[in-house]
Amino acid sequence: MEDKIFLWNDKKSANTGRIEDDFQPFIELSLIETSSPLGAVIVLPGGGYRARAAHEGMPVAKKFNESGYHAFVLQYRIAPYKFPAPQQDVMRAVAIVRANAEKWNVDPEHIAVGGFSAGGHLACCSGTIGLNVDRSAGDSIDEVSAKPDALLLFYPVISNDKTIAHFNSFVQLSGKEEPDEEFLNLTRLENQICPDTPPAFLWHTATDGTVNVQNSLRFAQNMWASGKKAELHVYPEGHHGLGLAEDKIDIRSWPVLAANFLENNGFPRKK
């Protein structure tokens, strides 16, 4: 069984038409033994679109395995790559997992995308603006749906409203110190909820000094206003970037809550 799958067939990585460095995005597999198809989570580490935090990757995938779900970690493109390269990567990853559902014993109708911080922004893109991104690569994966069945957003970057934004994430994603208004409007995800946006689970801390809790609050409120299902947990204290938060008695409950959210939304899990 492979433990790493590259997303694209060449270094141009989809249809961006440029090679900016030698990085080729890939997914890491963390599957569990099962006799029947299970739900799956694609994990996106955070890092402001300029890094990918290791503690928000495979350790989180293993935690979802403990909860009875298959998991994958997406090592997506970051700066100097620009929009829409990371968005192409996440959509391609969803399609690859779905295309290999029978091989990996994944339920193709229950694939979630979960991300931390800027990885949360990218995860949220997969259920909003990513649905319109051109991810064509000229192969059979192009024909497979890339729509996620749930979003898991962990202290996510959502808004580029400068009153609450982690604005450097948008600087990195756009490649501009002053991103243009068209880009900002497109990537302000609290305003991009659409009919195909799936149910969302979010958690944040009220004292996050890097990504304001209003990011999660605004998205959840707009989901509810749109008639969409969203579950939001706000913990009273905690700094940004906690990951599994295993040293925080209250916050370390979040993986169980997220796993239960998936089950409540029809994701089959190994008991």
Set out the fold topology.
Elements: E1 4-6, E2 26-30, E3 38-44, H1 58-66, E4 70-75, H2 85-99, H3 101-104, E5 106-116, H4 118-126, E6 150-154, H5 167-174, H6 181-187, E7 200-205, H7 214-225, E8 230-235, H8 254-264
Parallel strand pairs: 3-4, 3-5, 5-6, 6-7, 7-8
Antiparallel strand pairs: 1-2, 2-4
In short:
By secondary structure, the chain is of the alpha/beta class. The protein is built from eight helices and eight strands, in the order βββαβααβαβααβαβα.
Question: What class would the helix/strand composition place it in?
Answer: alpha/beta
Major sheet, described briefly?
8 strands, mixed
Q: Which strands sit side by side, in order, in the main sheet?
A: 1-2-4-3-5-6-7-8
Overall geometry comes to globular
The counted number of beta strands is 8
The ordered H/E elements are: EEEHEHHEHEHHEHEH
